[in-house]
Design brief:
Order of helices and strands: HHHHHHHHHHHHHH
Largest sheet: none
Keywords: Nucleus
GO molecular function, one term: DNA-binding transcription activator activity, RNA polymerase II-specific
Strand content: under 5%
Number of strands: 0
Number of helices: 14
Length: 282
């Protein structure tokens, strides 16, 4: 039986192999590498970050061209670059307090909007290839024993999201309510996969693209309920806080969006308490 590669093999072997054929993907790898060097060599961090941004910009230009000509041959490279650009986005936020994490999410989503169509049209092909480990629920993975108190508090928090959305529904109408509900269901599934199994960080990276696209539009409009859902996504990203590329992103996202939400109305304060407590513990 041929075993599908795990995450380490994916990033160590599969994606670099694809990059041998696609320059924009090689640019994405070099951008990530430069950002990693910025963490390892803080005295030269500004130069490394400049280099990373140059490679990122070059990669994005090639990526946009590829999106206009998707085929079975390049779909893996396109999907690979979308993963790398999310990692770059997450990592960049930690390098500068001037970068707004929610604005980063919006800009990166708009760039990756076309990837959603690619994923849906090529989903079966991707799942049959090396990206199976990112796109399918874990089978036979290392299942983690949940902390009962953490599990209970998370369940209560998600339940409060559903209840708040139900209350708000009378003011926003059924279509917007369904966007909220779909987003919460998607986030709940992501929590179950990430918290329940070891090494499921791909879901954290993929969720902003896989969630209902209208949810990012509502975030841009500072819709209070959407802000709250994205705050809870910030809690999910705390699971990658230990990695150099995910450090501080979740904390900053929770802080940024909580401030924005409370400026709208202080009555939202009880609903963000769980997220703020989680951020304070990392």
């Amino acid at each position: 039986m041929v075993l599908k590669p795990g995450h380490h093999e994916l990033f160590r072997d599969i994606i670099p192999r694809e990059a041998m054929q696609y320059e924009y993907l090689a640019d994405g790898i070099l951008a990530v590498a430069a950002l990693h060097l910025a963490t390892l060599e803080p005295l030269q961090s500004s130069e490394h970050i400049k280099t990373a941004m140059l490679y990122q910009d070059s990669g994005i230009r090639g990526f946009k061209e590829a999106l206009s000509n998707v085929s079975d041959d390049n779909v893996n490279a396109i999907f690979s670059f979308s993963i790398l650009i999310m990692i770059i986005n997450l990592a960049s936020t930690g390098f500068s307090s001037d970068l707004n994490p929610s604005e980063n999410l919006v800009s990166i989503f708009e760039l990756l909007r076309g990837v959603v169509t690619v994923i849906k049209s090529s989903e079966q092909r991707l799942k049959e290839g090396p990206f199976k480990v990112l796109l399918e629920p874990p089978i036979g993975g290392i299942q983690l024993v949940p902390d009962p108190s953490e599990q209970e508090s998370r369940a209560e928090a998600i339940s409060s999201l559903y209840e708040r959305a139900r209350i708000i529904s009378k003011y926003v109408g059924p279509q917007t309510y369904e966007i909220y509900s779909a987003g919460i269901r998607s986030l709940e599934t992501a929590f179950e996969e990430v918290i329940g199994f070891s090494g499921r960080h791909g879901m954290i990276i993929a969720w902003p693209v896989m969630a209902p696209h209208q949810l990012i539009t509502l975030l841009k409009q500072s819709d209070p309920m959407a802000l709250l859902i994205w705050i809870y996504y910030g809690v999910l990203t705390l699971e990658i806080h230990e990695h150099w590329w995910g450090r501080d992103f979740g904390v900053l996202l929770i802080q940024n969006l909580s401030e924005a939400l409370l400026k709208i109305d202080q009555e939202w304060d009880p609903y963000i308490e769980w997220a703020r407590l989680k951020a304070a513990k990392v």
